[in-house]
Design brief:
The protein has 217 residues and is mainly alpha-helical. The protein has two domains: 105 residues, Rna Polymerase Sigma Factor, Chain: A (Orthogonal Bundle), CATH 1.10.1740; 112 residues, Winged helix-like DNA-binding domain superfamily/Winged helix DNA-binding domain (Arc Repressor Mutant, subunit A), CATH 1.10.10. The protein has ten helices and no strands. Helix 3 packs across helix 7 and helix 6 crosses helix 9. The longest helix is centred in the last third of the chain and has 23 residues. It starts with 8 loop residues before the first helix and ends with a helix.
Length: 217
C-alpha cells in the first residue's frame, strides 16, 4: 500500500538530495520515491552478481533497509544511486560468500517485453530468441565482467559512475567492458555454430510421425 501520493507530480519532480534531507528531517514516506526511482537500476546491477530472482529481490530489500538506516552517512555531493549501488553490491557479495555459491547460468530467462506490438509473430519470436541467446551469453561471464557490462550496456551508466560504484580505475572498467564484449561475441558465435540448435528429434519426431501415419491409415 502506497504511503504517499506517488501520482502527484510535485513529489516526482523532487531532487533526490532534497528527498534525502526531508526523509532525515522526519518525512519518512518520501523514501518510497527513492525506491521507485532506483528499483530498475538496482535490479540490473544485482543481476550482474546474483542469478536467482528471489535472491535478487531479497538483496534489494536488504539494500534499501540498510540504506535507510545509514541515510545520515550519505554525502550530498555524490549521486544517491551510486551510494545505493555500493551498498547493494556489498550485500550481494556477502550473500554469495555466506552461501558459498558459485554464480552460474540457470535455465531461468526473464520475459522480454517486445515494444513494437505491430511486429509479425515470426519477427517477435526471432527477437525473443536473440535476446535469450544474449542473456545466456551474459550469464556465462564471470561476475566481475558481467556486472561491469550490465551497468554500461544494459543500464547505460557512465564509465565514471561504474568506476565509482566498483571502486576501480576508469581504465580497469574499460578493460572489463571490452573483455566482456569480446567474450559475449565469442559465445554468440559458438551458439550460432551449434548443430544441436532447433533439433526436431526423439519424442517430437515420434509424435509427428505417429499423427501423420494415423491420418493416412
Amino acid at each position: 500500500m502506497s504511503v504517499l501520493p506517488i501520482s502527484d507530480s510535485s513529489f516526482n519532480k523532487l531532487p533526490e538530495k532534497e528527498i534525502v534531507q526531508r526523509v532525515l528531517s522526519g518525512e519518512k514516506g518520501l523514501y518510497e520515491i527513492l525506491l521507485r526511482r532506483n528499483n530498475q537500476k538496482l535490479y540490473r546491477v544485482l543481476r550482474g552478481y546474483l542469478i536467482d530472482s528471489n535472491d535478487i529481490e531479497d538483496t534489494m530489500q536488504e539494500t534499501y533497509l540498510a540504506a535507510y538506516e545509514k541515510l545520515w552517512q550519505y554525502r550530498l555531493d555524490s549521486a544517491f544511486s551510486t551510494w545505493l549501488i555500493r551498498i547493494g553490491i556489498n550485500k550481494a557479495l556477502y550473500r554469495l560468500k555466506k552461501a558459498k555459491q558459485t554464480v552460474a547460468l540457470t535455465d531461468e530467462v526473464k520475459t522480454i517485453e517486445i515494444a513494437d506490438k505491430n511486429q509479425e509473430p515470426e519477427n517477435k519470436l526471432i527477437q525473443v530468441e536473440a535476446n535469450q541467446m544474449l542473456e545466456a551469453a551474459i550469464g556465462q561471464l564471470d561476475k566481475k565482467y558481467r556486472s561491469a557490462y550490465i551497468m554500461k550496456e544494459v543500464e547505460g551508466m557512465s564509465i565514471a559512475e561504474i568506476s565509482d560504484c566498483l571502486d576501480l580505475s576508469i581504465s580497469n572498467v574499460k578493460v572489463r567492458i571490452h573483455r566482456a564484449k569480446a567474450m559475449i561475441k565469442e559465445s554468440l558465435y559458438d551458439q550460432s555454430q551449434a548443430t544441436t540448435l532447433f533439433e526436431f528429434g526423439f519424442s517430437k519426431c515420434d509424435d509427428l510421425v505417429e499423427r501423420v501415419m494415423n491420418e493416412i491409415f
